[in-house]
Design a protein that fits this description.
4 helices, 202 residues, alpha+beta, Deoxyuridine 5'-Triphosphate Nucleotidohydrolase, Chain A, 3-stranded antiparallel β-sheet, elongated, 2 domains
């Protein structure tokens, strides 16, 4: 059962008293069995109060949808003091999550990825590389747009405008768009005939 309507999962209760030794673990029965919907699984998650106050965590917390036996919770005591689980005590949370049960396809080669075969901890480096890659984006060619089309964009709440420009082989290119279309229309009227390099920053 849930403690309130807004909590993420169902409370799991101990059906019997159990001692969990310091730096040890114990399996605690709940006395219930469940039938989960197709393409879901049950995840047994620790209760915040037990984790914070007594350093009790849950392990081996996956319940497959075709499992029909008793739901049991494996409690791991990471603390230096033993903990006594009392009968009827809330010991964990059961959260139902969706999964993708499509069959896996065996291949001889994987698609390329920026991270490649880098090991643990390398994802931070990959994110830094992605940030660098994002800072060098292909430039967009400036194109004219009619006032009617501007009006349609504005009514839809979209935005438009030049943020940065660059000149390549006598052609002017822009990199991003960030001002409202209404201001864009007014600016087009007020700056008509001026060089775009005089109206936006490089």
């Amino acid at each position: 059962m849930k403690g309130s309507a807004q909590v993420a999962g169902q409370d799991l209760y101990a059906i019997e008293g159990t001692n969990v030794t310091a730096r040890g673990q114990a399996m605690v029965g709940t006395g219930i069995a469940i039938g989960l919907p197709h393409n879901t699984y049950g995840r047994i998650a620790p209760r915040s109060s037990l984790a914070v106050k007594h350093r009790l965590m849950t392990i081996a917390g996956v319940i497959d949808s075709d499992y029909r036996g008793e739901v049991k919770v494996v409690l791991a005591n990471l603390g230096d003091q033993a903990y006594r689980v009392e009968k009827g005590e809330r010991i964990a949370k059961l959260i139902i999550e969706k999964i993708d049960n499509k069959e896996l396809q065996e291949v001889t080669q994987l698609d390329d990825a920026k991270r490649g075969d880098q090991e643990f901890g390398s994802s931070n480096t990959t994110m830094d590389q992605e940030d660098e890659d994002q800072s060098v984006q292909p430039l967009m060619e400036i194109k004219e747009i009619s006032a009617r089309a501007f009006g349609q964009f504005y009514r839809r709440g979209e935005t438009s405008g030049i943020r940065r420009w660059d000149e390549i082989e006598d052609e002017i290119y822009l990199k991003a768009i960030n001002i409202s279309t209404e201001l864009g229309i007014k600016n087009k009227k007020n700056t008509e005939g001026q060089d775009v390099r005089d109206t936006v920053p490089q």
